[in-house]
Amino acid sequence: MLTSSSMLAPPAPAPLSPAQGEPSLALPRSFWKDFAKRYWDREPVLFRGLFQAHFPSTEEIFAAAVEASARSLRDEYPPMSVVRFFVEHEDSPDGMPYYSLIFPLTKKHLPLPEDRSANDYVERVTRNLGGKRFGLVLNRAQCHHWGHWLQMRSFLSGFHEAVGVPLGLSDSCVFFGNYLYTPFGVHKDDLHIFYFVVEGQKTMSMWPFELLSGREEVPKDPGFIHRPGAIALRDKADEKQVLAQATTLVGRAGDLMYWPASYWHRAEPSQGLAISASLGVNFQPPEFAGRAPKGQWPGRLRHTELPGSGAWRVPASVRKSIQQRTRREELLAAEREQLSDWTRYLTAGALLGSPPEATGEAPLTPKEWIRTSPQRPIVAVSLPKGQVLLSANGHSTTLSPSPTVRRRIDALLKALNSGKPQHVEALEEAFFTRLTARGFNTRAFRSLLQDLVRWRAVSRCEPLVARR
Predict the structure, then answer these.
(1) Nearest C-alpha neighbor of 54 from the set 15, 9, 13, 10
(2) Rounded-to-integer distance, Cα 192 and Cα 347, Å
(3) Is the peptide bond before 374 cis (omega within 30 degrees of 0)?
(4) 3 state SS of 132
(5) DSSP tag of 315
(6) Last-in-domain residue among 223, 247, 282
(7) Pick from 255, 282, 309: which residue ends a domain?
(8) pLDDT at residue number 6
(9) How far apart are CA 232 and CA 362, in angstroms?
(10) Which SS3 state, helix, strand or coil, does residue 115 take?
(11) pTM, to two decimals
(12) CA–CA distance, 362 with 368 (Å, rounded to integer)
C-alpha cells in the first residue's frame, strides 16, 4: 500500500467570515479557482486546516442521526432509503471481512434521544450486538440538522461558482460507527466526493478507475466509468495484491478529502468511533426528472442562476426542458409538478431535500420584527392556470391569488428579500391598504408569514433603529 504525500494539498487561504453569525464553511474564491484547476475530476487530495470554525461536530452529526432515526421509526421514509445499519462479522472462510445489512430497523439499532451522547449510543448497540462492531449510514444528513444544512450549502457556494451547479444531486451522507472497513468493500460511486472527517482517523485506500478496470467483475462498457460498481476481492491474497496498488489518504478530525467519481475506494481499519460526512455531487439528471417524459435537460447551471438577492426566475434552460416534456394540455399537471420540484431544489441551493422545519416557534405578533437572508431569498414562481408557488430553503406552498393579490405578494417579497428588518404590523398594513379583493384575508397573510418562520426563511430580529 502506497502513501502519497503529493496528495496532501498546501495550506489554503483563510475561510470567509460567516454572515449574521451562521455556521459557514465558505472558502475564498482563490481556493476554489486552484481546486478546479489542479484537482477537480483529476485526482484525490487531502486538505488540512482549511476551517478554523464551524466544522461539523460529533454532537451535530449525532443530533441529525437521532432526528433521522425518529422519522424512520415513524415510517416517514421508504425502508433503507435514508438510514441503513450494518453489522460486522468475523472473517469469512476465505479470510475476507463481510457485513450484514439489518432490516427492519428498530430502537435496538438506532440512536435515540435517551442516548446522552454518540459514545453512549455506541456502547449500548455494541452491548446489544454481543461485542460486534457496526456501521450506521445516514443519507440526506442535511435534511435532519439546520446547522449541517447551512454548513454544506455555504461550502458549496464557492464550488458552484468555480465548477457550476450540479443538477443531479448534492447530498451529505454520514458514516458513523466502530466498523473496520467500508461495509460496501472496494467500490466506486457516480459521485464526486468531499469527505469531512468529523471524529477519529480515516484511512482511505484509492485506485484510479483504469488500475482495476481489467478485473473480470468490471464491465467492459466504456460508460461504466460514470456508474457505481464494486470489486469482488476473492481472498486475502487477492486483497493484498490489490492493496499494494493503492494510494492512501489519512485524515484526522477537521480534515477534508476529495476524490473524483471515477476512483475506487475503501475505508481501512481505525480504532474506536469514527464519524465522517461524505458530501457527494453529480451532474446527472435529478431524481424527480425521471418522473417526467424524456427530453433535454441542462447538465448544470451557472452559480448566478441560483436564487439570490433581487428578483429571480426559473432559469431559461430549465424552463425549456420542462416545456419539451410537457407540451400537451393533459401534461399541465406534470409541468406544474416539474416547476415546483425544480424551484424547491434550487431554493435549497441544489442540495437534495429541504432542511428540517423550525419547531416550537411561537406565532408572530404584530409588534415583532423579522428579516430574511438576502443569500436565501423567498421566491414566487408562476404555475399553470394562475397559481403561484412560494418557495424558500427547499420548502414551498401553492397559492391561487388574484392579479391584485399577486402584485401585493411580489411587493411583500421585495421588502423581505432586502434583508433589512421588517415590522410585522407594517408589512400587514402595506399588504392590505386599499385592497378591494379580499380573497386573501388577514388570517391567510399571517399564516403565510408563519410558514416562512417554520421554513426558517425569516427569523425574528431586533427592531430597525432609525438613523439621524
Answers:
(1) 15
(2) 22
(3) no
(4) coil
(5) -
(6) 282
(7) 282
(8) 54
(9) 55
(10) coil
(11) 0.91
(12) 11
- Judge if 137 and 241 occupy the same domain: yes
Q: In Å, what is the CA distance from 249 to each residue of 42, 205, 239, 428?
A: 15, 7, 18, 56
Cβ pair 283, 170 in contact under 8 A: no
155/229 same-domain check:
yes
CATH of the domain at 206: 2.60.120.650
φ, ψ for residue 409, nearest 5 deg: -65, -45
In eight-state DSSP terms, residue 390 is: E
What is the per-residue pLDDT for 109? 96
* Degrees to nearest 5, angle at CA 83 with 78 and 85: 120
What is the amino acid identity at position 251?
Answer: G
Q: Is 241 helix (H, G, I), strand (E, B) or coil?
A: helix
Is 65 part of a structural domain of the chain? no
Residue 30, SS3?
helix
HSE (side-chain half, CA atoms, 13 Å) at 29: 2
> Under a CB-based contact definition with an 8 Å cutoff, are residues 374 and 312 in contact?
no
**Averaged pLDDT in 10-residue chunks for the chain of 468 residues:** 59 50 93 97 96 96 97 92 93 84 94 96 96 96 97 97 91 95 93 97 96 95 93 93 96 97 94 95 78 67 85 87 63 80 93 92 94 93 93 96 93 95 96 83 94 96 70
